[in-house]
Amino acid sequence: MARNKNPEITINRILDAAMDLFLEKGYDNTTIQDIVDALGDLSKGAIYHHFKSKEEIIEAVIPRLYDSSDSKLLEVKESTSYSGLEKLKQILLISLKNPGQEKLATAAPNLMKNPRFLTQQLYNTVESIVPNLVEPIIREGIKDGSIVSNNPKEVAEAFMILMNIWINPAIFHSTEEEFKNKFIFFRKLISDLGIPVLDDSVLEVLERYRAIIERERK
User: Fold this and answer.
1) Which of 90, 93, 192, 205 shows the smallest number of beta carbons within 10 Å?
2) Which residues of the chain have pLDDT under 50?
3) Long-range own/partner contacts, residues 195-199 (CB < 8 A, 24 or more apart)
């Protein structure tokens, strides 16, 4: 097949196919040949023209799960209508309600079996989302008085790591009651850190994902 004159289209096709395979089979069990087979009309050479390795592909795949909410997150970040704490609440709900989260919950109900995907997701959170979004908003909240903390960087990292791992039902299996108790504890912990952003609306979204994940695991 002749190379596409618009490389962005080819790149997007590669990433879409790779993401589906990574979620379905796991990163470690997916090969470049699997991606070639899924696409049907591209060679390995065409893929390597855009990505040097499978590792480079997954580094590009993870942010795509959340692309659809990027403009909303930026709008909240740049808004002058909210305090820092209110912004943090808004971006949390926007992120949780992103369609990519439901896709992840449905396709990969047990992320412990997909460690490379989980690791890359966590890396993207700490290296990109925290410094570019969460920490600046916490600092803004400290400045406007809505957040009380002397450690904005550490609070931002701890909050996001716990949200992505410890409270994540795709990593730690729990019953509805166990999850609710865990959430109550987490809500108190986060409040003690100066960012009381967890309320019943957050619990409702997380519980919906927990129910989806439990259904997919059976």
Assistant:
1) 192
2) 1-2
3) 195/85, 195/88, 195/138, 195/141, 195/147, 195/149, 195/155, 195/159, 196/85, 197/85, 197/88, 197/89, 197/92, 199/89
Q: Which CATH architecture has domain 67-217?
A: Orthogonal Bundle (1.10)
**Segments making up each domain of the chain, as ranges:** 7-63, 67-217
Q: Give residue 2's pLDDT.
A: 44
> Does CATH place domain 7-63 in 1.10.10.60?
yes
Residue 218, pLDDT score: 64
Ramachandran angles phi, psi of 194, nearest 5°: 100, 5
Model-level pTM? 0.79
